[in-house]
Amino acid sequence: MCAYVIVYRDGRWLNSAAGSPAAGPEPELADSRGITLKREGSCKGTPQGLPAPGHLKEVTLLKGLWHPGIIQAANVTLDPETAHPELILSEDWKSVRRGKKRQDLPDNPKRFDTRMCVLGRESFSSGRHYWEVEVGEKTGWGLGVCKDSVSRKRGLTPSSINGYWVLLLKTGGKYWACTSPWSQLHLRKRPQAVGIFLDYEAGTVSFYNADNKSHLFSFTDTFTEKLWPYFNPCLRYGDKCAGALKIQPVSDWE
């Protein structure tokens, strides 16, 4: 059985193979405003059940999406003033790992002193932004975004209700979305790199396996503050977790 692909572009759903309007009722656009989306399915009969844009777990970004006005590949770097004192940043501020001891760094209101994390230097308060982080064989990490007002001096549990929209890999190979309560994810393939896609106006933070572009999870919320890219290299559980998280150039979706 062959496959069809339904694409949303320029305010309408198309059959991407022919570029013609797709059969079936047009869904309510909801969170997909302006985003090109796809969903594969059977060619048998008339394509029905177009993806409901509010349910982004069923949707993946279309390959070859990087043209002006749709999504910006964000040039994310790390902010050393926010880094926990045990974290070591590279000179280009593109990677972070946990060191073996606490560094003597000046305290400031921006610095996390309990949670083992660092934020990006650039915040987002509008638009669509995408970046990728190499995680390699690390056995623990946390990636996503957090709101500007999260406490930097208390170790609150990361969750969407506390202003963290984060995906975690914990000891034992278990993946978690930091919903409230946390949701365990069962991934078919272990990602070596993770893509994070923020659509501020739509209120979504989506995660992708950057190796094969498969969708992992999406949060849906209402954002009212600046959001910061979030990086947590986690505790040093042996050599595999001691490696760095590395912000990598955005790969082509072709």
UniProtKB/TrEMBL annotation:
The B30.2/SPRY domain, residue ranges: 56-250
InterPro entries registered for this protein in UniProt: B30.2/SPRY, B30.2/SPRY_sf, Butyrophylin_SPRY, ConA-like_dom_sf, PRY, SPRY_dom, TRIM/RBCC
SMART domains in the record: PRY, SPRY
PANTHER family xref list: E3 UBIQUITIN-PROTEIN LIGASE TRIM
Protein name: E3 ubiquitin-protein ligase TRIM39-like
The species this protein was found in: Geotrypetes seraphini
